[in-house]
Fold these 2 entries.
Entry 1:
Amino acid sequence: MITDRSESVLSLANMAQKASAYFKLLKFRLSFTVAFSSAIGYILGHPGGSWIQIALVMLGGLMVTGAANIVNQILEKDLDKLMKRTANRPLPTNTLSVTEATIFGALIGVGGLFILASFFNTLTAAIALLSLVLYGFIYTPLKRISPINVFVGAIPGALPPLIGWVAATGVVSVEAWILFGIQFIWQFPHFWAIAWVLDEDYKKAGFKMLPMEGGKNLKTAFQIMIYTLVLIPLSLLPLQFGMTGATSALIAVICGVLFLAQTFHLMRTCTNKAAMNIMFGSFLYLPIVQIAFVLDKI
């Protein structure tokens, strides 16, 4: 009797460990952030959309993004073992096998594409599939080949709000490209700041994430500043094209100026602390601006 109970407890513990590992494999916080951007695009394209529709576009986006993240982790399983920040992921620790990860990734990827195609339109699903392929099979191997990987990775990273707009409207319009452009440019200061802070860890895996030879220097800081500067006029385009109002434009400019000020500090000091401030600032910038756009529209 005691043995049966012990086996039962052990079985439940193993199931809980597996469930936790599958959840970690999704990179849920990252996937949710991407899904949130899809919802922003959908609401801006169809302000009268129901909460069910918004939830479905988020769910589809989250599942496809999760599948892309799984492809990334399968291809980088051995490299993840070399880096402190990734060594405890489910695949490097053998908590999950590559086969288990592949099956899970295929199921949620197909499921997410099915949701986007069935409840919205096939164009939305096609763009989501393109995003998955670009991130999982092109950006991922490029990380060890050339710093251009950040440019390539920024494309699938910027597609979510465009996908949301297409889900709402059925067309890739100028407005969709504006949403894409804002998120595309935002990713350069965001990811280069992360790469600056984690440079030593990335080098252990041979990842070439910073744009300039030598990495953490004034030239890299200058590029971060330039891309951040471009965000300010770019964030005014939704107002120009009647997508949002003046209030959100003002908020976007204020956030952009504050974001830009952090890059000047990095140029002066070239320190990890300054890069970390940009990293956290970038995490705040995008959702604040996107939520302002939505609140100004509805």
Entry 2:
Amino acid sequence: MSIRNPKQALYEQFATVAKALGHPLRLEMIEHLAQGARSVEALAAKLGQPIANISQHLQALRRAGIVSAERDGKFVHYSLADDSVLSAFASVRGVAERQLAEVDRIVRGYFDARDDMRPVTRDELRAMMRDGLVTLIDVRPADEFALGHVPGAINVPLREVKAWSAGTDASREVIAYCRGPWCVMSFEAVAALRSLGHSARRLEDGMPEWKAAGLPVEVVTCVASL
């Protein structure tokens, strides 16, 4: 088949991907799928959305090649097509962070109010863990922790942070991470720990970025498939 204007045809395909990314709920779905494969039902429960609505958005992402699907019995599990999806997400986020005043206002008004310290880099964390200098906590829900976590991390879901902190040494620094660089849970965990007298900081990003960097990941193999 001859293509009259191949450049325009390519740009139309590129626009298909950009259009699929251009919805806040779809971006949040990508963040959740970056933690591990999910069924429509599980993803809908995570996001508090009707199954039909999530299914419709998943189909749009699938048509654009952003997610893939695999059938497991009566369920269909969706996952990100590959790590390039995370790169695209990070690029969109980076442009918004640099160029949009509203992003800066949100960061200053909410995130910096909870933690304005420089986060810990992946290399710094690895060195600290190797030397036994910190306690690393994963504040995501248990099912996400089971799908993959940083080796040596302790799963302390956000709602359990205060209770967990009561039995730990307040002089030992705690590093928290969750789904990504702007995941609210790690900010809230750090703020809660500091209010209780602990030294606490965040990892610079989250589990998906750790995995995409080719760093080791542990999974919990003794739990039922989610």
